[in-house]
Amino acid sequence: MTSTHDETSTCHSGTSLAPGDEASLRAGLTAIGDDLLGISHSIHAHPEIRFQEHHAFELLTRTLREEGFAVQTDIGGLDTSFRAEAVYGDGGPTLAFVCEYDALEGIGHGCGHNIIAAAGLGGALLVKRLIEQLLERGEHGAAGRIVVIGTPGEEGGGGKAYMVEAGCFDDLDAAIMIHPAGENLSGMSTLGRVALTFEFTGTPAHAAVNPERGVNALDAAVLTLNAVGLLRQQLPSDVRVHAVIEDGGDVPNIIPSRSFIRAFVRAPRTDVLLNDVVPRVINCARGAALATGTEVDLQLPTPPYAALRPNPVLQDLVESAFARLGRTTVPPLQEAFPGSTDMGNVSQIVPVIHPNVELQTGLNMHSQQATDLAGGPRGDEAVLDGALLLAMTATQLLRSPALLDDVRSAFVPGVRTPATVDSVEDLRRIFAQQESAGN
Ligand SMILES: [Zn+2]
Ligand SMILES: [Zn+2]
């Protein structure tokens, strides 16, 4: 799916990708394409779950060092994270290509993060080659900083949240990545997400002989889920609350003294999530504890994921790049996609774009079918087209300061979501402080 295309961008500053630049990028892809596919296949064949991505980390950082990038590791305390940089001239934009490379438990690369890694690396290498060619020819306007950021643990670990906290994204003019999916889509917003756990503690007793002496922790868990079920009637339709009971007791003849709920609460707006929905879900658990006489302990086990905010100017660039690739896109979603990504946390502090690149129409991600496609010919097409799409987008930003200004003016700063918080109250306080500070 890399046919040539005559369509020119109708972007905000009237900038289109110069035909010479596009030809150089395409020639670059011909030169490095097989290497990128080798990296994609290798990561696919060695699936590693969150924060254990040592094979992918070694492969990507070794390649970047060989290509002349300065590589920094262990960012935000994560030993499979990295930030690689190649600097050309003075000034110019700092553009980051974001890689993910973690797999899912049980089904390997069912989210296709091997494709994200290879396409992100490829986009950076293509732009680097182009800049070096321009400099060799003595052309101006090629100053800039090419950054590749390796972000582990996207699937449930919130790796980017720790890296945001470490300041890894602060100096960027834009952070761009692609994600494989069931359609081509230039940009979408997602839901913010808070993960909660509720541990109820009661008193064990023989369930038949002395039931009156027991305090039933399972009853508290069941009441919580029933209360959440009723609460859903009064929640906005774009809010999601879903939970499992991970521990509900051991045997029927002992009243359970412990139960454990793991819940995700999601909403498109962080203020609605923190100030309205999450407190009401917590009240369901508190009410259940009161009704049953149990104690409830609330924890936030993983970093909150902020809602993803695509930059509209970057979205237009990606839309035109899709056209050049000969890929038909679906219309932008009217509502937030009802999932979440830790790229949302990045999108609150710098301009980002997170387009979907189709593997197969209508594909459900996180499935065995997605795993199979991510390692096959469809996955290879997504790697090559993804690398070119990212390189085309970055090249336009590199070549046009006016376009970069448009990206900056379209950016609305959000909340710097913390990676670790002790309580929902702390999270709300941090959010409220930043709101009042005008962030
Ligand atoms: Zn996923
Ligand atoms: Zn994913």
UniProtKB/TrEMBL annotation:
Alphabetical list of Gene3D superfamilies matching this protein: 3.30.70.360, Zn peptidases
Pfam families: M20_dimer, Peptidase_M20
InterPro entries the UniProt entry points to: Amidohydrolase (IPR017439), Bact_exopeptidase_dim_dom (IPR036264), Peptidase_M20 (IPR002933), Peptidase_M20/M20A_hydrolases (IPR052030), Peptidase_M20_dimer (IPR011650), Xaa-Arg_dipeptidase (IPR017144)
Lineage: superkingdom: Bacteria
Domain Peptidase M20 dimerisation: residue ranges: 192-269
NCBIfam families xref list: amidohydrolases
Family statement drawn from the similarity comment of this UniProt entry: Belongs to the peptidase M20A family.
Designated name of the protein: Peptidase M20 domain-containing protein 2
Species annotation: Nesterenkonia aethiopica
